[in-house]
Design brief:
CATH architecture: Alpha/alpha barrel
Helix content: 40-55%
CATH class: Mainly Alpha
Number of strands: 9
Mean pLDDT: 89
Distance between the termini: 127 Å
Radius of gyration: 41 Å
Strand order of the largest sheet: 5-6-7
Number of helices: 19
């Protein structure tokens, strides 16, 4: 039997009769408690009031733990102060006005790049895209190639492409070089184009050119017998009054005269340059596999044609007056290099590094124009391009000897650009005279600026601080500074304080030698001679051809802003392509550098072939 009671502390109390203590045991327990209480009372009396106060501490029971009251109060105080401080900081952060740091404004090279690309929009022929961003241009020359007599059946139409300069002729030789240069700059500096917001734009410009080139020959065939070399005519040397693209001064949209097409069957230089343009573009569009392969096939057909049908495209025709080609050997090296990078086929590299080809191209004999990259001579571009291969992939035998030669020659060329060497004169304003004082110097200057900036970036990417000019060592910054001084001159840092890029800065040419920009768009169709009044007027052009780089100053830093003097005021596709390349190379942050890998995207892994063993020893 058991009884249940209530524990005064809140718990149940169970009492068992069998377990109850005896009276003696309870009495003994009470006596022990009384004795303990007495001992405590005596102890407190003996210690005294001061020591008793010192010994006795106060505690706070938190349920799960018992802590000193003093520590508890300090903890609470600390938490309270921390909460107040956090609140004050939050209040200050939310109430104090924030000053957002604006990103640094674009540098002059980036600003000029935006404008320089627009020039290509103004040069488009054919049916223009909806958003061409040049208000005074429209569809033009919509019958090109359709009504031409004597053209091959493979050429069905030649609508589209670009006009070369201030006229409406489509010269395919310099245009192909222009497209190659644009593609090269995109392959090396796609990140910079992206940062400037121009990558999609420049790729659209390249595609506009390559789509047109695919019309100039049977691009679906493996072998061809001819290609179109030129649309339109500009020969006025015989005093003829027959309307053509130089005799007449008309807006392209108003052209109503016949525009002949010139084909060639022995034009190694043109075919190899067009092959280079398509091959380089195939790397730009490598993410569009179908289009890239289409370009590679066309390039392969063209390069094979160039090797089979030897000859200069300009020999015996009017192209020799405007864009005369002096040789096709440089295009063999240049085109072969681009074909290798586009296909990875080592036979192209073997061809491009053949010493005999380099010798015929002038790699070993120098000359006054050695080291000058232009629409006519691409040897310097090929030397730089193949030096890149040696720097980053080092293919070794059997290419090493000629690649080392090209690499050394590239270093010598870079030395020749520096002011402490006398290979080229300079104007008093500092412009290098790569064409030795002849007219239209800027197209050569921008190409050299591009190569210098690019080679500087190659060395930086290869962790090479510089290069030697004889016994003297120069850092990569020296090359970049050369490029900057030349481009700065063009942008307005020159004795005339004039920008030679139309629309850049406040002082630039207003009488550009350009038919479309000089004839007003006023719903009046001016005939062949009717536009002469706009050619000869002293008034500024009614339209600003933004981004056009004019031909440039003379060797005395002089410049005549006269529409009829094309040696000063005419822009060209090839010139602007070099300008775009130089501007993007110098734009933005130097640390972004080049894209080391994209150029080699089609190149297989390098496993150098060991050199052959020495001949057996004979006593």
């Amino acid at each position: 039997m058991s009884m249940y009671g209530r524990d005064p502390w809140g718990g149940p109390l169970e009492i068992h009769a069998t377990d109850s203590a005896t009276d003696d045991e309870r009495s003994r327990n009470l006596q022990e408690l009384d004795r303990a209480a007495l001992d405590e009372t005596q102890q407190s009396w003996l210690l005294g009031a001061g020591e008793q106060k010192k010994k006795k501490k106060k505690y706070v029971d938190l349920g799960c733990i018992i802590v000193s009251r003093k520590i508890f109060i300090w903890t609470l105080g600390t938490l309270a102060v921390s909460a107040v401080l956090a609140g004050l900081i939050t209040l200050i952060v939310k109430t104090v006005p924030r000053h957002h740091h604006k990103p640094a404004p674009p540098d002059n090279y980036t600003l000029a790049l935006h404008k320089a690309l627009l020039f290509f929009n103004a040069q488009k022929s054919g049916k223009l895209p909806r958003h061409n961003n040049v208000s005074w241009r429209g569809n033009s020359c919509m019958d090109d190639g359709k009504k031409s007599e004597g053209t091959s059946s493979a050429i069905k139409d030649l609508i589209g492409g670009y006009y070369d300069a201030g006229d409406a002729i489509k010269f395919h030789f310099p245009k192909a070089f222009a497209m190659t240069m644009l593609s090269w700059s995109v392959i090396e500096y796609s990140a910079k184009y992206e940062a400037a917001g121009e990558l999609a734009h420049v790729k659209e410009l390249i595609k506009w050119g390559t789509d047109y080139f695919l019309k100039t020959f049977n691009h679906t065939a493996d072998t061809i017998n001819s290609i179109a070399a030129q649309v339109g005519s500009g020969d006025t040397s015989d005093g003829s009054t027959t309307p053509n693209d130089h005799y007449c001064w008309m807006r392209p949209e108003d052209i109503d005269y016949t525009r002949p097409v010139k084909e060639c069957s022995s034009c190694s230089d043109l075919a190899a340059e067009m092959a280079a343009a398509l091959a380089a573009a195939s790397i730009v569009f490598k993410d569009n596999r179908a289009y890239s392969q289409k370009l590679v096939h066309g390039a392969t057909t063209l390069y094979g044609f160039s090797r089979k049908q030897r000859g200069r495209y300009s020999q015996g025709n009017e192209a020799s007056v405007f864009y005369n080609s002096t040789s096709y050997w440089d295009e063999f090296v240049w085109g072969g290099a681009w074909m290798y990078f586009a296909t990875g086929n080592s036979s192209y590299l073997k061809l491009a590094t053949t010493p005999g080809l380099a010798k015929h191209a002038g790699a070993f004999w120098g000359g006054p124009d050695y080291g000058v990259l232009s629409w006519d001579n691409k040897l310097t571009g090929a030397q730089v391009l193949l030096s890149r291969l040696r720097l980053f992939l080092s293919p070794g035998y059997p290419y090493e000897e000629i690649l080392r030669t090209f690499h050394n020659q590239t270093g010598i060329i870079m030395c020749s650009y520096l002011p402490m060497f006398t290979s080229f004169n300079r104007t008093r304003g500092g412009l290098i005279q790569l064409n030795h004082g002849r007219p239209q110097p800027l197209q050569y200057v921008v190409n050299a600026a591009f190569l210098a900036a690019l080679y500087s970036d190659y060395l930086d990417a290869a962790d090479t601080p510089g290069w030697y000019c004889g016994p003297n060592f120069f850092s990569t910054d020296v090359l970049r500074n050369f490029a900057k001084t030349q481009i700065d001159y063009i942008l307005g840092k020159n004795p005339r304080k004039m920008s030679y890029i139309v629309g850049f800065g406040n002082h630039y040419p207003k009488h550009v030698h350009h038919r479309g920009a000089s004839v007003p768009k006023n719903k009046v169709k001016y005939n062949c001679k009717g536009g002469w009044r706009w050619r000869d007027t002293s008034k500024p052009n009614p339209h600003t051809i933004v981004g056009a780089m004019v031909a440039g100053p003379d060797k005395h830093d002089g410049f005549h802003d006269v529409r009829t003097n094309y040696n000063y005021t005419e822009p060209t596709l090839a010139g602007n392509a070099g300008l775009v390349a130089a501007l993007v190379a110098l734009s933005g942050d130097k640390s972004s550098g080049i894209d080391k890998n994209t150029l080699f995207s089609a190149v297989p892994p390098m496993f150098p072939t060991p050199p052959p063993p020495p001949a057996p020893w004979k006593p």
